[in-house]
Each structure stands twice: as structure tokens, then as C-alpha cells.
Amino acid sequence: MVGTGYVGLVSGTCFAEFGVDVVCIDREKDKIKRLKKGEVPIYEPGLDDLLARQIKSKRIHFTTELDEAVKNADAVFIAVGTPPRSDNGHADLSHVYEAARQVARAMEGYTVIVTKSTVPVGTAREIERIVREENPDSEFDVASNPEFLREGAAVSDFMRPDRVVIGTSSERAQKVLKEIYRPLYLNETPILFTKRETAEIIKYAANAFLATKIGFINEIADLCEKAGGDVQVVAKALGLDGRISPKFLHAGPGYGGSCFPKDTLALAQTGQKLGARQKIVETVVESNVSRREDMARRIIESCGGNVSGKKIGILGVAFKPGTDDMREAPALSIIPILQEAGAQITAFDPAAMGQAKEYLNDIDWKKDAYEVADGADVLVIITEWNEFRALDLNRIGDLMNEKRLIDLRNIYQVSEMETMDFHYVSIGRPEVLPAKKSVLKEVSGA
After folding, report:
1. DSSP string spanning 330-375?
2. Partner of 168 for a Cys bridge, out of 18, 137, 173, 433, CB 3.0 to 4.6 A?
3. How many CB atoms lie within 10 A of CB 288?
């Protein structure tokens, strides 16, 4: 497994659980030292215990030496990063191609080279060309095996997937990969063998479709607010249609993370490059960017149009619960806009504060939600961590300067908030004003 990032580490550990002998390779010496001790450098529930078990069983090993690991391997998975390039947003494949070159020079005997990284269509073909150029006499096949892991549920997603997609036309490669995935094959998990280009497109298509569902329900939420509807009831009715399903029909501040923003952009750019524009996806990308700015404006408007000097408490900054990942998190757009408008920000996240400090400045970080609420003029829920779902709202209200709650994830019921004397603002649902307007201090329109 070349690369011990999120995908590489989870995949390697789970393959070891399958009974496969796995060697994980990374150039970062300190990272490898930590992994050898069983220290997991990412936040992923269940991964630390699983890794400890595999280290004890001696089915997983960690090294910085690629050559020794590759020459004895039946299959080499490339799981290095493909971040968007700063100049044009296209996927940066330099690490993938460099890994392919190193693998080509090191492999001995027949080897299946597998792309686990999310890569644009045509990448496997280019890897094949690179390997043939570096090692003309080698025996190998290149396959595409995209991952479909959700951060926060990656271990269960790998061990009990909806499907496994493998792109290769080589029967020899299929045999090797069937053996690696044997436990899933025995459990009758759908394993789809297809062309490499098809497998590469499947990954992007899946993420783009899910991102589109998020963008769609967010726009329906805007319509509900204007028309007096309730987006949660609309989403429930849509989800009961078997053709649609309820998943990813949750209105909020837009999608983030390491996959959706990068993959939707890459798919749109691939379509433009090949002359098959993905107009729906292009619109989704634009809509998601503006969504975050709209959420910041909504917070300001809910405070009477002026947050200068206001103390705003933020609950949750990770792009989703169950992870410390800050990549493309909505909070990274929302918080700076509030700060530019003059707001003072306090914040808490159960897992992501360490990561967030690298991206956000001038934040007063607190140890829990109640410290954030203390003296706050408004409390904003950005990430729907479970511990925010059952806050003692009476205590929260007593601590706050003004009883104003802006729920960007709709984790509280409107009917419940009507009894709490809060000014409650959510997404795509009726606004709740306090029974006693005097609790809103110096807010125009109160």
C-alpha cells in the first residue's frame, strides 16, 4: 500500500483483517514510526483498535523503503493524494505518477498495480505507459479499484461495502484481486469487474450524484423558506420514494471534505476537456460555493444585519461529524466572513480543533459547548456532532447574553424550540421568535 493517508491506512488495515499480508509505505519517517507503535495519525472511529490487532497479528507492517516491499508483492495499491492544483483546480497526479515510476523500477515478477486514489479517467492508461517505459521487460497489469469510504464510517464501509468496483480486462489481474477480496466475495458482496475507464468514471459519478442531491435539497430549502414550507417534511416525502431514497437529502450549509468538492470539480473539468460538458455538475459546484457565503449572510441577517462587536459561538467546525477533517469545511468560509463583519468568535469541536487552528485565526477555542455559550450573543451549529443534539437548552440560554440559536443542520425540532423562548433560525423551516421580545437586546426589528 503506497501511501498511508486516509485511504491507504484504512484500506491496508482492513486488508490485513481479511488475512492478507500488508506492507504500508510512506516517505514520512516520523509517521511510520508512530504507525509501528500503533498510533493512528487520523481521527477515524474504530481504526485504532483494528490497527492494534493487525500489528499484534503481524499481518501489517510499515516502512519507508518502497523497493523491498514492492519486489515481493503480488499487488501494489497506489493510495497517494490527488489534491486540486492551485492554478486551475485540476487533480494533481504528480504523486500518483511518481509512485508508479518507483513501483516500476522496484517490482520483480508479475505484479498488479492498482489505483486506489481517486483519479480522472485515463489515469490507469497513463500509469501503464509510465511503467512500460520505466521497466519494458516487466510483467504487470494496471487496474482501477476506487474507494467508497465515508469519513467517520470508513472501517465499516470497507468491511461491509455496498459494492466493490474493479477496473481491469486482464483475467490474471482479476484472479489476484478476487483472492485479495475473497472474504467479501464469500459474503456475496457485489463485485463489479469492468473496464478501467468505466471504473474511474464510476467513482466521480457516484460522488457527483450525491453532491447533486445535497445541492438540490438546499435549493428546495430556500424555496420552503420563501413559501412557508418545511424542508424536512419535503425531504421525508421524497425519501419514501424508492427511486430516490432519503440519504443525502439533509439541508445545510453545503458539502465539504476531501472528496465531494475535489471530485465534482474534476468531473466537470474532465467533461470540458473531452467535449462532454457536465452542466449539472458545474452548476452544483457553483451553487455549493455560494451556499457557504449565503449561510454567513444568514447569520448576520438573523442578528439584525450587524454583528460588529457581537460574540458568536460556533459549535462544530469539521466538515462532518465523526472526523477531524477540515478540508473544504463550510466553517472555513463562514467564520472568516463573520470575522470580517466584526464578530468575535468562540468555538468548540470534539475532534477538529487541532486541525482547525492551522486554517482559522483569532478564534477563542473552548473545551465544550457550554463554555462557547457563556456570554455569547448568538450560538451557531455548523457541524451536527451527536453531543450537540441533546444540549441542556435551559442552561445554554442562562449562559448566553442573548437567547439566539442558529441551527444550520436542523438538529432541533421547531416545536421544541417554540417552548424554549429562543430566537431560533434553522434551514428551510419556520423561524421561531421568542415569546418575550425583550430578551433580544438592541436588535433592530426585535
Report:
1. THHHHHHHHHHTT-EEEEE-TTTHHHHTTT--SEEE-SSHHHHHTT
2. 173
3. 23
Q: Which among 273, 162, 268, 150 is positioned nearest to 215, based on CA atoms?
A: 268
Helix (H) or strand (E) holding 53: helix 47-57
Whole-angstrom Cα distance, residue 322 to residue 369? 17
From residue 445, alpha-carbon distances to 158, 253, 306, 441 in Å are 52, 25, 12, 11
Report the relative pairing of strands 75-78 and 60-63 from DSSP bridges.
unpaired
- Cα separation, 408 vs 13, in Å, equals 35
Give the side-chain half-sphere CA count within 13 A for 325: 19
> Do 234 and 311 belong to one domain?
no
Mean pLDDT, the chain cut into blocks of 10 residues (446 residues total): 95 97 96 95 94 97 95 96 79 94 96 95 96 96 96 95 96 97 94 97 96 98 97 98 96 94 93 96 96 96 96 98 95 98 98 96 98 98 97 97 97 93 96 68 43
Q: Is 100 helix (H, G, I), strand (E, B) or coil?
A: helix
Q: Which three cell numbers stand for residue 204?
A: 466521480
C-alpha cell at 164: 466493490
Q: Is 62 exposed, middle or buried (0-12, 13-18, 19+ CB in 10 A)?
A: buried
CATH number, domain with residue 237: 1.10.1040.10
Q: Which residues are catalytic?
A: 259
Residue 102 CA, chain-centre distance (Å), reads 29
C-alpha cell at 169: 480486462
CA–CA separation, 9 and 15 (whole Å): 10
C-alpha cell at 171: 483475467
Residue 392 has a CB neighbour count (10 Å cut-off) of 12
Q: What is the pLDDT of residue 444?
A: 42
In a domain, 90, yes or no: yes
> Do residues 60 and 54 make contact, with C-beta atoms less than 8 angstroms apart?
yes
Which domain range does residue 247 map to? 204-281
216 and 180 in a common domain: no
301: which residues sit within 8 A by CB, 6+ positions away?
none
Asked if residues 352 and 318 have their Cβ atoms less than 8 Å apart, the reply is yes
Strands across the sheet containing 111-115: 75-78, 111-115, 140-144, 164-167, 191-194
Confidence (pTM): 0.91
* Contact criterion met (CB below 8 Å) for 248 and 214: yes
Same domain for 376 and 255: no
Single out the residue in 249, 281, 313 at which a domain terminates: 281
Question: How far is it, in rounded angstroms, from Cα 41 to Cα 23?
Answer: 17
H-run or E-run covering 22: strand 22-25
